[in-house]
Sequence to fold (356 residues):
Amino acid sequence: MTKISIVGSYPPHYGGISIHMQRLHKLLAPNSECHVYDLYASGGEPDEAGVHRVYGKSMQRILRCGQLLRKNPSDIEHIHVSAMRKFLWGTPVLLGGRRSGKRILTIHGGAFPDVIANLAAWERFIFRWMLKQFDHFVCVSAKQKQVLLDWKLTEDRISIVNAYLPPVRDVDTSPFQGVLDAKASGHPVLICTAPYLEHYGVVELLTALKALPKSDSKPPCLVFVTYLDVDEAYKAKCKELMEGLKIFEYKEIDPSQLSALMSISDVFVRPTWWDGDAVSVREASYFGNRILATDVTTRPTGSHLCESKNPESLGKALAEVLQDPKLGKVDFDHFDSMRKLIAIYNQLGADISTDA
Fold:
């Protein structure tokens, strides 16, 4: 049986990478000996079969994870990274030492091209060394792939795979009676997931909602799922804009609860200025949401797009989506990423099958 190690973040830590890793783990576990190393554990997380929580400060975590990987060698190590500049600092410790298995790096961060373009000389040296340590690279966009090609990697070592695996469709909506009542009474339900950080575009979304023209139909309500309170001034600005709007706010909820809220909603809104390949966009479409998103990256075919940093453009697109129930319907194969990832594993020597 193939032995696989996955390194990154894992629930209850919130975010797209965590959810992706959890679903990847559940996909691989029945057909392999799969171990997960959670580098973002804070303490008190529930035990889960095959999941190893790595505690300590940043460099301590990386050191301990490298030690664990060397002590428990795998046929395939699959490392997931978003903040590439931070990741570079720890690569010699994490990747150093002789290992006979194959390595995969999945690059999630939308800022990756700009980060690599602005590396200092010593960072470029480490980045060049790091590229030699992996057998295959998984990118979430063509822009990321082009960066690797510019650094002389060959096409056969790079794949573009959306960082998305489908959720469980059977969800419990009973904890969200308020949202269910609003929908039943005729309010269109919008949903947005974002922390209170400027580049996620929450201010633009709230501004657009306030500027929607009055109509005979009931105004939309917004389901806002937030996490990571790191900018109190920005949060205060958002709270001020929320006054007078019909909003249901939930903080750091379980992924299954997010899926339940998506199953109630009508339109998923992604107003960010900066994005990689948002898992939430695809997950929302899985539950039948129409998609309204900024044009900062490639979106699933059929998504209704607006300009980033532009509340007027977002407001216009929002009004259009609310008026036309056909706008924003996406055409997307929800099992495509699953098949592609398994193909990469098998290409590197695994023996894993799927019925999807």
In short: The chain has 13 helices and 13 strands. The longest helix spans residues 58-71. The mean pLDDT is 92. The chain has two domains: 3-165+335-347, 174-323.
